[in-house]
Amino acid sequence: MGQPESEEHRAARESALPPGQRLQRGWPVTHYGPVPRFRPERWEFRVFGATAGGGKHCWSHEEFSALPFSTVVADLHCVTKFSMVGAEWGGVPARTVLELAPPAPEATHVMVWAEYGFSANMRLADFASERTIFATHKDGELLTAEHGFPLRLIVPHLYAWKGPKWVRGVEYMTADRRGFWEERGYHNVGDPWAEQRYSYQEEPGDGPEL
User: Who contacts 92 (Cβ-Cβ below 8 Å, separation ≥6)?
Assistant: First the structure.
C-alpha cells in the first residue's frame, strides 16, 4: 500500500492546474442527452466541407479502427471546474485525419460533429495540434459508452466540451461558426488557462464575425 498523498504534494499538483480548476479523482460522467446505441454496421466517420479535393472522405468503423494507433498523455479540464490529470489517451491522431483527408488551403476552422447533431467548433490550428486525438481508449482500456465509445475527441489544451463524445465526422470550414454549446453561451475559443468559459468573456476576434 502506498502512503497517503501529503498536503504539500497535493498542493503542488493542484498549482499546475488551470485557474479555477480542482483536481478530480476518477472520471465523472457528464454529457447532454441520452447515450447513443452503437451500431457498427451503420457507423461511418466522414470528413467533408472545404476539403482539398472538394469531395468527402468516409471510413467505416472497421476501416477507421485500422488507422495507425497512437497514444498521448494529457489532462482533461472540464468547464464545470474539475481536472483529470495524466490520463493516457489512445486512438487516431487528428493529424492523421488531416493527412488522409487534407483541408483546402482556405480552410481556417473545423466543426466536429457527433451523434444527435451535437457539434463543437475550433480553429484549424487547435484541431491540428500534435496532442489532439480521436480517442478510442483511456489508460489502455476501451472507452465505455458513457464516456464516448466508440470515438471521442480529446483536445488537451482546450476545455473538454471542445472534445465531443460519440464523434461521427469533421467539417472543414472557411469561416468560423459556433457549435452546440457555443450557441448556448459558452466561450467560442475555450482556453482553460485563460478561463475562457462563457461568451460574455469574449474579446474581439474570439468569435465569428457578425
Answer: 64, 67, 68, 69, 70, 133, 134, 136
What does the alpha-carbon distance between residue 180 and residue 115 come to, in Å, rounded to a whole number? 12
pLDDT, one tens digit per residue, over 139-169 is 999 999 999 999 999 999 999 999 999 999 9
Dist. CA 76–CA 107, nearest whole Å: 27
CA-based end-to-end distance of the chain? 58
> What percent of the chain clears pLDDT 70, i.e. is strictly above it?
90
- Checking DSSP bridges between strand 22-23 and strand 82-93, what pairing results, if any? parallel
Whether omega before 150 lies within 30 degrees of 0, making that bond cis, reads yes
Partner residues linked to 72 by β-bridges? 89
d(CA 1, CA 4): 9
The pTM assigned to this predicted structure is 0.89
115 closest CA partner among 65, 168, 155, 170: 168
